[in-house]
Design a protein that fits this description.
Blueprint lengths: L2 E4 L13 E8 L3 E8 L2 E8 L1 E6 L2 E5 L3 E5 L2 E8 L6 E8 L1 H11 L12 E5 L2 H9 L11 H20 L1 H9 L8 H7 L7 H7 L4 H12 L13 E4 L2 E4 L2
Parallel strand pairs: 1-3
Antiparallel strand pairs: 2-9, 3-8, 4-7, 4-9, 5-6, 5-8, 7-10, 11-12
Length: 245
């Protein structure tokens, strides 16, 4: 399965604003565990359908009653149609620069905060519903004030979520600018009981399959199962883990 580079695949005008970007996403077929390289942090405002995402050692599933803020990086996305035979969401991308500018302008200079979870689940309410309805890729393109309007919309949703969730959301935003990458062992061992294939776990580790196998053997003193098998369980023996077939 090929890797999708997002939002690059959605951007037609390469001269457009590279810091803030809105995209109306629709599809009529289910997609299961699509490999996505997310180049910018992103709001996913789901309106019709169901979504599940995997990142490193964690996963989350939402429906239209919730929205997601996702950290940039490698994800596995599962997007399922609803009864209307369509999947529809609005995606709002923002660069680290815009995030840093916002944090400097509106939040305290908090100490570096390492958030274990790379996503933030947002419970939709009437205000957020109205905000989602105001977002459209058509509105924020080919307009003399598009960039200024988009910046206002970005600050609007950020300020509302700060008022809604307080320190929890502020700390999470600061964690998004952290450069720390999840350790190899954490990713592997967090997926012990998952149904992910070896190549999918390698992708979450930002590695090719061959590189992943070498790291696995060096770390656990045993080779991983052949490609196509699933990692179902580990047994701890003599301070190392062995794969149980």
């Amino acid at each position: 399965m090929s890797i999708e580079n997002i939002p690059e695949r959605f951007i037609k005008d390469k001269k457009a604003n590279s810091n803030l970007f809105v995209y109306d996403f629709k599809m009529t077929t289910d997609v299961v565990k699509s490999k996505v390289n997310l180049g910018m942090n992103m709001f996913s405002f789901l309106q019709v359908g169901k979504k599940q995402v995997h990142f490193a050692g964690t996963s989350v599933a939402v429906n239209k009653k919730q929205s997601l803020l996702l950290k940039k990086g490698n994800w596995l996305w599962t997007e399922l149609l609803d009864t209307d035979a369509i999947y529809y969401c609005k995606l709002f991308f923002f660069s680290e620069k815009k995030l840093t500018d916002f944090l400097s302008k509106y939040t305290n200079n908090v100490k570096p905060y390492q958030e274990e979870v790379p996503y933030f689940v947002i419970e939709n309410d009437d205000y957020i519903g109205a905000f989602i309805n105001s977002l459209s890729s058509v509105t924020f393109t080919n307009h003399s004030y598009s960039d200024a309007l988009l910046l206002l919309k970005f600050e609007e949703i950020m300020l509302y979520l700060l008022s809604k969730y307080g320190n929890q959301f502020e700390y999470y935003l600061h964690s998004l600018i952290s450069k720390e990458i999840s350790p190899f062992k954490k990713v592997v061992e967090s997926n012990i009981n998952s149904n992910l294939k070896l190549e999918e776990i390698a992708f979450l580790c930002n590695m090719s399959l061959s590189t992943f196998k070498r790291h696995f053997t060096n770390e656990y003193k045993d080779p991983p199962p052949e490609n196509g098998y699933k990692i179902n369980a580990f047994k701890k023996q003599k301070n190392c883990y062995k794969v149980a077939n």
